[in-house]
C-alpha cells in the first residue's frame, strides 16, 4: 500500500493502526522506513489538528503553588515585593522576563507556560 498524506480523521486513524502494526520493525528495513514516514505524517497532522495548549501563566503559577504548598511569601524572591506577587496572581501586571526566569529556575515551571500571554494581561496592558 502506498503512503498518502493524512487529510482527515479516517486517514489519521488508519495511519495509527498501521503504525501499531509496524512498531516492532527493524530500523533500516523497508518496514522501519515506512514506520518512520508514517510517524512523521501523523506528527504533522497532530500538530495541526491537536495543538498542545499551554496553560495561562497565572494558572501555571497557581498550579505549582498548590502542588508544592507554596505561599505568596515563597514567590517574593522570584517576583518581587508581596504586592507585586498579588498583582501578578490577579492578572493585573504582566510577568517580566526576569520573573519568568526566576520562576522557572526556582519552581521548575515550564518557561513555555510562563511566556504565553494570559487573557487578563491582554485586556490590562501594563
Automatic annotation (TrEMBL):
Q: Which domain of life is it from?
A: Bacteria
Q: Name the Gene Ontology biological process terms.
A: regulation of DNA-templated transcription
GO function terms (MF aspect) = core promoter sequence-specific DNA binding
| InterPro entries assigned to the protein according to its UniProt record, in alphabetical order | Antitox_HigA, Cro/C1-type_HTH, Lambda_DNA-bd_dom_sf
The residues covered by the HTH cro/C1-type domain are 61-114
Q: What is this protein called?
A: Transcriptional regulator, XRE family
Q: Which organism is it from?
A: Wenzhouxiangella marina
